[in-house]
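User: I'm new to structure prediction. If I give you an amino acid sequence, what do you actually give back? Let's try with this one:
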Amino acid sequence: MTIKQLFKTAPLTTLLLISFICLYILQVLTGVDANSPTTEALLYWGANALPFSMGDQPWRLVSSGFLHIGLMHLLFNGFAMYFFGQVAEPMFGSSKFLALFLLAVIGGNLLNNQMTWLSILDGTGQPGLSAGASGGIMGIGAALLMAALFKISVNNMVLNLKSLVLVMGINLVYGFAVPGIDNAGHIGGAITGAIMALGFGIAYRQRLKAHLAAIPVAVYRTEPPSTMYSTEPAVNSTDSSHFNKDSAHLDNTNQSYTVDRRIYTNNNVNNPVNLADNTNINQAFDPADLNSNIGADVHSDASDDPQITNSYAAVLAAKPAMLWQLLPWIIMIIIAIGFSWWWLDIHNQILKVLAAQ
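Assistant: Good question. You get back a string of structure tokens that encode the predicted 3D arrangement of the chain. For your 357 residues, that looks like this:
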């Protein structure tokens, strides 16, 4: 996929990738080592570090998600964002996708700082720093995993659950096996993404129900054509001359029907369907007509036939209750409030320890 195609499919994913690259280029142009930047340089460009992020510079919880420690780190996260983003952004929408990435980055950094602070209190650790988009990317991956569980489709394609589990598992195992990897950031981002995607999945199910409720009911013939037009012996279906098309009514006792829901997109959907015309295999009734005719005789007169209407626009316009539409945003707001409380709790703990010394 070219940059132009990616921008058309997932514009925010493209902009995020550009921001990663541009920030790295600025670092290198200002003298930062391309592969092994110093601690001072990383702090200058916005890395996450407990004394600063939990102090008077909480903005580092976000800025560190755009900063990378060396070229290989940038390439690894860049490819991951490219593959995840081009699927996740069209699925969730650009605004929700951006909120998902940012909150997952914050969640990963907060968990990293929490674990660092606990290790300091235990005397087993010391302040360090972290940077990279991997927390946000793991959040996107976890959200896709939840989407696969809810069978949310993108362009009529459902995500492969086993493949997603494998990719996420490899990343987590890699984080535990290789020293220097911010595994707490990965886990925090993944948990944040999974919780947010739960709201996406529930809202999707409710929207699907609303769409199905807007689709008209279709009635299909299940008997062979030769039993529907006359009592003459069965003949070859290819010889239409043996069919009696003059019959004005169908024998209701010889018919069986199945009810299903179907979206009609045929260009001729506004034409009436004559039940006595053997060229029409599928018949559809307006829901109101079907409800009034269930259990009654079905006639083939053109005057009695219902009109098929194109319901595609109605399906797209159908919306669930306002609560379900707002649910993803409600969950995001709750997460944001929870993160604010979390940051304040760690911040106050640090202040108390410093005041006691």
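You can read the tokens as a compact description of the fold. Here is one thing that stands out. The chain has two domains: 3-212+318-356, 216-231+249-310.
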